[in-house]
Amino acid sequence: MKKKEHGFSGSIGFVLAAAGSAVGVGNIWRFPYLCAKDGGGLFLLVYLVLVLTFGFVLLTTDVAIGRKTKLNALNAYGTLRKKWKFLGYLTFLVPTLIMTYYSVIGGWILKYLSAYVVSSGNEAAQDGYFTSFITAPVAPIVFMLIFLAFTAWVVYCGVEKGIERFSRIIMPGLLLLIIGISIFSLTLSHTDSDGTVRTGLQGLAIYLLPDFHGLTFGRFLNVLLDAMSQLFFSLSVSMGIMITYGSYVKDDVNLSQATNQIELFDTGVAFLSGMMIIPAVFVFLGTEGMASGPSLTFISLPKVFEAMGGLGRIIGIAFFLMLAFAALTSCVSVMETLVANCMEIFHKTRQQMCIMVGIYSLVTAILICLGYNVLYFDLTLPNGTSAQLLDLMDYISNSFLMPFISLLTSILIGWIVGPKWITDEVVKNGESFPRAGLYSFMIRYIVPVIMLVLFLVSTGFMKLNF
User: Is 80 exceeded by the pLDDT of residue 89?
Assistant: First the structure.
């Protein structure tokens, strides 16, 4: 197999870069609101079980395919079986769609960060602030452009000098910010006008302790499906990113140990994000604030920071700086996947492809921004939810393509190529793979069934009426 021109310097570089890809808006924005929606501790318990089973299977598969083939997702599947090369093209579609809107969300984060840097940030807590910003004709494009430019610069610098060096600096700082704000959230307390006192520790109890009261099979299945869909956001699997990063990994790196470290880092950040956000929202907004769903970060949290008084500005700066770091590391991995694939398609240099992908990202991101004003439309998706242009791209990539790709990959590896193809790559240098038996069982019998159910429910072909 030909040696890649670029690669990570070693295991630490790979783990930090891969963890940077995995740790993103999905961990800090999506995980806490899903956890709050699905019963706190119950969602957390289900998610942890899934990470140790499905998460490790999907992550190990992607990384091992990348390292063994030394190819990006576009061509890697074709080396396993020629008739399955189409799966590489399906995988390539996912980052192509995600790149259209990820820098837009990054721009939203920068807007909120700037609101706390240049002023008290209290205006960000006012009703209608978020809506007025995203529907503005120019401001969202300007902030998106700043975020996209930084992303493109990191990718332009390359794997070791760009992505790895950036990850080595950002990831430790990100972790320190999350830990610091998490600890601070537990010290909070607030007294309502009627004398009711709420504390951060009470919010922590809601977050950690599963509530099985009134639990039905239908509710549990919804929690299970929410937790499973979170895995895709959280671990960057089934979108070609981990195959691309795996292709940069040296043969002497212990894959089993590296994937365990990525799992631990990613899950740890998701757990701390919940501990950082849920107790704080509970203290100042009660259980009603915890049920605010996707608006938790951009609408509810600024109200929490405002309620903290003068300290709220400092916490607001720290929080949105941390969120910007997380969004940037993930956006870098998405753009890197596109650049790496396009280098193989067009046989051009990294710098040339980075410029081309950057132009594509800029044009499509502008269209997404305009989707909230001049290009606005209201569409009902097959799963019954209402959507605009950004929601449509997110639905196609995350609810349709990613479960479908995971389903097909599990069939390819589990029943056509054979799990031994993956396990042999993991232990190629004599390393141990304690979960090899679990991997083989899961990839053949469990993953295909659950992925099929998730795909059918997400696309509206199966209704859960219990």
Answer: yes
**Size of the chain in residues:** 466
Angle between helix axes 255-290 and 300-307 (nearest 10 degrees) is: 70
Q: Is residue 281, in this structure, part of any structural domain at all?
A: yes
Whether residue 26 lies inside any domain: the answer is yes
Q: What pLDDT score does 271 carry?
A: 87
Distance between CA atoms of 65 and 81, rounded to whole angstroms? Answer: 12
> Which of 111-115, 246-250, 394-398, 454-458 shows the highest mean pLDDT?
111-115
Tokens of 321: 């700086």
* Burial classification of residue 159, based on how many CB atoms lie within 10 Å of its CB (0-12 exposed, 13-18 middle, 19 or more buried): buried
Give the domain extent around 216: 11-458
Token pair recorded at residue 80: 């396993």
Q: Say which CATH number the domain at 430 has.
A: 1.10.4160.10
DSSP string, 262-290: HHHHHHHHHHHHHHHHHHHHHHHHHHHHH
- For residues 15 and 184, is the Cβ–Cβ distance under 8 A? no
* Alpha carbon separation from 54 to 72, 139, 324, 348, 350 (Å, rounded): 22, 41, 28, 37, 34
> Residue 216: what residue type?
T
Element (H, E) at 379: strand 379-380
CA 287 to chain centre: 25
Beta bridge partners of 379: 387
Q: How many domains does the chain have?
A: 1
Structure tokens at 233: 């956001």
In a domain, 319, yes or no: yes
The answer as to whether 192 is a domain residue is yes
Condensed to tens digits (0 to 9), the pLDDT of residues 423-465 reads 999 998 778 888 899 999 999 999 999 889 888 887 777 665 5
Q: How far is CA 149 from CA 78, 263, 298, 337, in A?
A: 33, 29, 23, 17
- DSSP notation for 141-191: HHHHHHHHHHHHHHHHT-IIIIIIHHHHHHHHHHHHHHHHHHHHHHT-EEE
Measure the CA dihedral 428/425/342/229, to 10°: -140
